[in-house]
Amino acid sequence: MTTITIGHRYQVVIPKEERKRLGLHPASKVNVEARDRYLLLYPVTTKGMRGLGAEIANATDATDYVKKLRAAWG
Question: Does this model's pTM top 0.90?
Fold first, then answer.
């Protein structure tokens, strides 16, 4: 764990090692979430959602797709 200081304008500097590990650059977006007595900062990313639902984006009827999934599930 690394300790950082809040500046007079309520700004914080993310340590270099953490920026590199998370791939943060100037103008990167991060989410801030308050949990009990903690602040949680994590990068905003949409990469994890890419390709989600790609199977039905190729002009397959959504109803047929769901029926096929249900049949596969038993």
Answer: no
